[in-house]
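Tutorial sheet, problem 5. The two components below are modelled jointly, 567 residues in total.
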Amino acid sequence: MRTTQMFIPTLREDPGEAEIVSHRLMLRAGMIRKVAAGIYSYLPLGLRVIRKVEQIIREEMNQIGAQEVLLPMLSPAELWKETERWDFYGKELMRCQDRHDRDFCLGPTHEEIVTDLFRREVRSYRQLPVTLYQIQTKFRDEIRPRFGLMRGREFIMKDAYSFDQNEEDAQKSYNDMYQAYQRIFTRTGLHFRAVQADTGLIGGSSSHEFMVLANIGEELIVFDPESSYAANVERAEVVTSPPASQDEPYHSLKKVNTPQTKTVTEVCQLLNTTADHLVKTLLYTTPQGSIIAVLIRGDHQANEIKIQRHLGIHDLTLADSDSVQSVTGAPTGFSGPIGLKNVQILADQAVQHLKNYIVGANEADNHYINANHSRDFNIDVVGDFRQAEAGDQSPHSQAKLETARGIEVGHVFMLGTKYSEKMGAKFLDAQGEEHCAIMGCYGIGVGRAAAAAIEQNHDDRGIIWPIPIAPFHVHLLPVTTSEQVLEVTQTLYAALEHANVEVLLDDRNERAGVKFNDADLIGAPLQVIIGDKGLKQGTVDLKERKTGEITKVIPEELVKHVLEKLS
RNA sequence: CGGGGCGUAGCGCAGCCCGGUAGCGCGCCUGCUUUGGGAGCAGGAUGUCGGAGGUUCGAAUCCUCUCGCCCCGACCA
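Model answer (structure tokens):
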């Protein structure tokens, strides 16, 4: 392609709206433009990268026997009501109506559609297994879209769905997909890590996320430096070590005056103790309007996802101050489990091992010291309700867990029969008995993967594309305008195209500096600089974007050198 | 939804506090020169100052409302 014939509006300056590297560079390199918050147009250069990523995904999906389909973006409310996700998905679902006022939504994911397709067409175990995938625009009305393609309201996603006749086959489908994902992200040149994950709104039993490690990542993961264990903190299990000594006698409960102490830190300061001797009582409102209490050790953070999973609900919110006042009779900051009526009490497992701890007294400006469960109040449920953190004991070795930030570029779920049961997706086995298909679902954020690649591959001059997803392999830069330069440029351009190298020729009437800067910004892995200076010696410069290393080659051998470097 | 910030030429910004005929840099157009890391000279075009209402002789500037965008948080495959 020639630059003068391609729409590549590069920007000299950083757009004010972009905060993170990938967003900034995509805008500056003329790959994308914003239409509204979280909604972008893909320009020719950006689309080329997207197509490269898609192609890698297609090849690996086809390789494991998945078949490409294209499902509608617009889907009728009825299907979503069958699975109850019409209500459950909440505000994130982009809803609309047709001229007859029938409800529709723009698909945020396609379990309903694909399961409906399956139940209409598949009758026999002989038709299994089947895995379908598509690459398509998805819609999610995110509460806060941000960072360009990283979190959009409209974005391109590859989603796949597997249907199997038994657990064993389903596990194989899941594993095949897991392996395919490993190959896909390796081929796209990403440094990533597969971690255990929460199943969220999609639901299901087991799940892994593929995380690209990057500091701007929105996900926090914990990993064990000495084993392969890694998990999203949303999900990471916490193991409690048994208490060092059980001998400490129970002291008697005592109310102490603690004025002006709203936080754990303030209470500890006043009572001259540390946060691990305090138990905070968090009050939550359930979607049904009832209040539950969760007891967490003072130095720990509650993990609302774990609590929600235990309760089997989705919309858990911290109780507002009015609710706290009416349930405890005290302002926020003084809630405690003792004397709470008609409130289910959940306790993190760490609390179970504590003795003689501090809790709020449900009375303004007062706490209890030497509180003990079973004696002073009853815990209804003990469980793992806190957030894992760096320094926690690894569940799989003697090591301490460490944390890192990641960008979620892929997610695989074992769904089981969650959707096939609700929607009646059944088949007959060899004995003529009816079973629900066992499903898996698998997603990849295409644009997000491209953005993640930039986060991991750039310098202060611009993007440094990994070869497999580069929009062009070679950027041809004639830097002077002599006839000889133009002639050699034409010859090399034709020769590279003939060799199926994807080449961008900067044929603009610009000065060398402008061309160099744009080439570095756009980030093709190789640059070929053709100028009178070099041609006097009979050579052109072959420059690697990544290292800056320049090889002087004679024009006749350029194609050979390029092919070597690209292989 | 809570907190913070921002909407002025295609892009980046100044002007606003203290009201008086809208500016700078880059880009864009024309011509000449120049051409190995964002050229020089000369000439030129470009604005409902996000929108609506109000105060005022007069509003980019002050007041009210509203829309949009960005960041933090809550939230989220």
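Marking note: The radius of gyration of chain A is 29 Å. Full credit if you identified this.
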